[in-house]
Amino acid sequence: MYDEHGSLIIPRNFGRFHFGRQELIQIMISVAVLTAAFTIVMIGSVPWYLAFGVAATVSLTGFLLHELGHKFVAQRYGAWAEYRMYPTGLFMALLFSFLGFLFAAPGAVYIQGRISKKQNGLISLAGPATNIVFGTTFVVLWLLFPSYGMWSAAFNWIGVLSLFLAGFNLIPLGPLDGKKVLAWSPTAWALALIATAVPLAIGWGLI
């Protein structure tokens, strides 16, 4: 945007990380529902407090930080970016959890603005990258503390679930992040996939 003298006008909030009030409410609802759904799925096999701890950690690191990764990078590029929940997706997550498994589409960060193909690729990569970092960290903790019983198992669950979410989102189809990352840089997409697959295979005991 330019003024009447031809000087570039930079909006006051350009590049800043900020939230809208409605966005914060929808984030809290989504985290709460996902935590409840994960807890319900796990409650039969582990003590409730451990199930809740794992569920809350996965919801925060696997879901919330994934979405905030998209939001932060998009806003750094000057784009409008806000999270919006999918009420139907959250309802289905709770419904499926009572059936013993979880399939969740809680919501997404909507982005608008003039961004380049590279910027769009980096924005898309930011989400899975957070899952890779946290997932790998928890798999490493699981390897370092193998004799801590249920806590060791919790490290493994958190790590594997976070890495699984990264791998799922890197599938280059439809609205998933992988399609936009691959369109920008096949090399970056392949490296992200490898960075996901190796610790995931370790966490699953395949390596």
What is the strand and helix layout of this fold?
Blueprint lengths: L20 H22 L5 H29 L3 E6 L1 H11 L9 E6 L4 H28 L5 H20 L7 H8 L1 H18 L4
Antiparallel strand pairs: 1-2
Question: What features would you highlight for this structure?
Answer:
mainly alpha; globular; two-stranded antiparallel ribbon; 207 residues
How does this structure look, described?
The protein is mainly alpha-helical and 207 residues long. It has one domain (21-203). The protein has seven helices and two strands. The protein has helices spanning 21-42, 48-76, 87-97, 117-144, 150-169, 177-184, 186-203; strands at 80-85, 107-112. It has a two-stranded antiparallel ribbon with strand order 1-2. Helix 1 (21-42) packs parallel to helix 3 (87-97), helix 2 runs antiparallel to helix 4 and helix 4 packs antiparallel against helix 5. The model is unreliable at 5-11 (pLDDT under 50).
Question: What's this model, at a glance?
Answer:
The protein is mainly alpha-helical. Helix content is 66%, strand content 6%.
